[in-house]
Design brief:
Strands 3-2-1-4-5 form a 5-stranded mixed sheet, with helices on both faces. The protein is α/β, with parallel strands linked by helices. Helix 3 packs antiparallel against helix 4 and helix 8 packs parallel to helix 9. The protein has a single domain, classed as Ribonuclease H-like superfamily/Ribonuclease H (Nucleotidyltransferase, domain 5, 2-Layer Sandwich), CATH 3.30.420.10. Helix content is 53%, strand content 16%.
Amino acid sequence: MRLEVLEELNLHILRLLKDVWGRVIALDLETHIQHPNMFLTDERILSVSLARRISGKFMERNEIEVETIFLEDESEESEVKLLEKLNEKLSNIKPLAVIGYGVRQYDIPLLTIKKERYHKRHNQRFWKLVDLVELAAVIDLYHILRYRGYKKLEENLYSQEFSNLPLKRTKRLVSTDRDEKRKDVYRLWKEDRETLREYSEGDVHDLLLIAESLAFGDSHRERYAASY
């Protein structure tokens, strides 16, 4: 029962934002981890992808704005520039909520570490990034989908429950093995950024649609009516 209440709480937050849905974003970071045993301490952000609905109807592919910001080269200065571009983008959107898969355990903590690091080293203040990690509601679909029986995101993408959604399903552009995926992402960043863009933008596009389905779709209405 506790998990069901937490799931409903997260989805209720999304429903409260229905009238300002353009300020809800799906977020995904792709990173290069030099030493896998140094989690969140030795990553370089290779790209940041964002998706949001700028108009149109929920659960439709049209009118979803998707953008990727790439790291130019493997230097600290380039990563600062990436965060500056992200900060500028966030200043235009002013996100009230961020959606992701594992975003609470990884993406948000990593961005928090980066903003603190570059404030100390370069006296950089990414104020809109501060708003994102400290003020915006974080909706992690990892927990919601696991409660519904999906152990991996790939299972959800190809499930009957979400078969009506116009998902891009780009997960298979890289390996499903965690270690091999890291290698694939790094190779694509170095050699084929358009494929990396397709992969990561498909990811955030699909996460946004799934969140819309969970919060506003027919399956939610049936579950909600049965609970009260």
